[in-house]
Amino acid sequence: MSQDNMIKFECTACKTITHHSHKNKKTLKERLELSKYCNQCRKHTLHKETK
């Protein structure tokens, strides 16, 4: 998989980038928002896609 499809997730609480994933940018135009576990906060928080 190419680096063009790679996205980063940033925690909305502590603003750290803790997760990476892949996304099909042709079918998904808007930015993703997922609830994921943050190692810094030590709890599940909302993570938003960054550039």
What does this structure look like?
With 51 residues, the protein is an all-beta fold. It has one domain (3-50): Ribosomal protein L33 (Rubrerythrin, domain 2, Single Sheet). It has strands at 6-11, 17-22, 33-38, 43-50. The protein has a 4-stranded antiparallel sheet, with no helix packed on it. The two termini are 18 Å apart. The mean pLDDT is 92.
Gist of the model:
By secondary structure, this protein is mainly beta. It has strands at residues 6-11, 17-22, 33-38, 43-50. The chain has a single domain (3-50), classed as Single Sheet (Rubrerythrin, domain 2), CATH 2.20.28.120.
Descriptors:
single chain, about 50 residues, mainly beta, four-stranded antiparallel β-sheet, 4 strands
> How many strands appear in the DSSP assignment?
4
Average residue-wise pLDDT:
92
> What oligomeric arrangement do these chains adopt?
single chain
Helical fraction: under 10%
Could you name the ranges where pLDDT drops below 50 across 5 or more consecutive residues? none
Provide the β-strand percentage band. over 45%
Radius of gyration: 11 Å
Q: If classified by CATH, what would the architecture be?
A: Single Sheet
Shape: elongated
Structural class: mainly beta
